[in-house]
UniProtKB/TrEMBL annotation:
InterPro entries: T2SS_GspF_dom. It comes from Rossellomorea pakistanensis. Keywords: Cell membrane, Membrane, Transmembrane, Transmembrane helix. The chain crosses the membrane at residues 6-27, 109-126, 132-149, 276-302. It holds the Pfam family T2SSF. It is found in: Cell membrane. PANTHER family: INTEGRAL MEMBRANE PROTEIN-RELATED (PTHR35007), PILUS ASSEMBLE PROTEIN (PTHR35007:SF2). Signal peptide: none annotated. This is Tight adherence protein C.
């Protein structure tokens, strides 16, 4: 009987592992098939991400609609969040949740009020450190939107910087093949994701609406403060005025960006060496010395021919 139970357990685990393996193979083949279908039908996965992001933005807008009641108060209490600064942060972050300046200003006050009531609730319940929560929760609620928007703007500008050299190489190759700039932008951005696509899609949309090319370029400058991206747009503006071939501009900018990035990596590596030396000198070396000294002391006390034996 025991043998049958053991055999049944072994068979169960064997079939379980086999099922997991086949299920993973099924998921892998499903992903490959979906990718093939997307390529054949030219479906845009980026548009699906945008729709999903828009649904998330709509949900957050519904959750933050009460912040509009505090908009006027938030614009008066604008410590570390002037209206112009907030406008720049939202623009450079891409404003994924479609927040207005007024709603943002109201949101920080709304979260501060919520934080205060949560602190009071924790104090009434008697949670640990609840007396500090009454003070710090409103401060956290006030500064949380400011911190998140600034981080989002920084993250977006960094993503733009990382994608830019590959984007420029692709555009330069298309232009050298005889494709116009507008057509190259429309075709190439389909293969990119993130802020580089969002910015140039908006640029193309402005051109379609009749906005002058120089104005559209300046709008790109206003929405982004990344130094490399601004250098590219300024070069395009200069080329537009002086008649410099655009393909050459993209190629030169791409080479310059890669060289600048290489220099930045070397600079970071050079700065890391003194930091490693400091850690080794003030952390690793003292700990190693203490360990060796401790072992020597233990050996003198408890080892062979120890001090205790000599004193006896």
């Amino acid at each position: 009987m025991d043998a049958l139970i053991i055999l049944a357990i072994i068979i169960f685990w064997f079939t379980f592992v086999l099922a997991i393996r086949h299920f993973s193979v099924y998921l892998k083949e499903k992903r490959m098939l979906l990718g093939h279908i997307s390529e054949v039908t030219e479906s845009d996965l980026f548009e699906k991400k945008v729709k999903k992001r828009n649904r998330k933005a709509e949900l957050i807008q519904k959750l933050t609609k009460y912040a509009d009641e505090f908009a006027d108060l938030g614009q008066r209490i604008n410590f570390f969040s002037e209206n112009q600064d907030v406008k720049n942060w939202l623009r450079k972050s891409g404003n994924p949740y479609q927040l207005t300046v007024e709603r943002f200003q109201g949101l920080k006050i709304f979260l501060a009020v919520v934080g205060f009531f949560l602190g009071m609730l924790s104090f009434i319940i008697g949670l640990p450190f609840s007396q500090y929560a009454i003070v710090f929760n409103p401060l956290i609620g006030y500064f949380l939107p400011i911190f998140l928007v600034k981080q989002q703007a920084k993250k977006r500008q960094e993503a733009l910087r990382l994608e830019l050299p590959d984007f420029l190489d692709t555009i330069s190759t298309s232009l050298q093949a005889g494709v116009s700039l507008d057509q190259a932008l429309r075709e190439v951005i389909r293969f990119f994701d993130g802020p580089i696509r969002e910015e140039f899609s908006r640029f193309n949309h402005e051109i379609d609406l009749g906005v002058q090319r120089e104005t559209a370029y300046r709008n790109l400058l206003d929405r982004n403060d990344n130094q490399e991206f601004q250098s590219l747009i300024k070069a395009l503006l200069q080329g537009l005025k002086l008649g410099v071939p655009i393909a050459t501009t993209f190629k030169v900018q791409s080479e310059d960006m890669r060289q600048i990035r290489e220099e930045q990596v070397k600079e970071l590596a050079a700065k890391a060496s003194p930091k490693v030396t400091l850690v080794t000198t003030f952390v690793v070396a003292p700990v190693s010395i203490l360990m060796v000294a401790g072992l020597m002391i233990l050996n003198l006390i408890y080892g062979e021919n120890s001090l205790l034996d000599l004193l006896k």
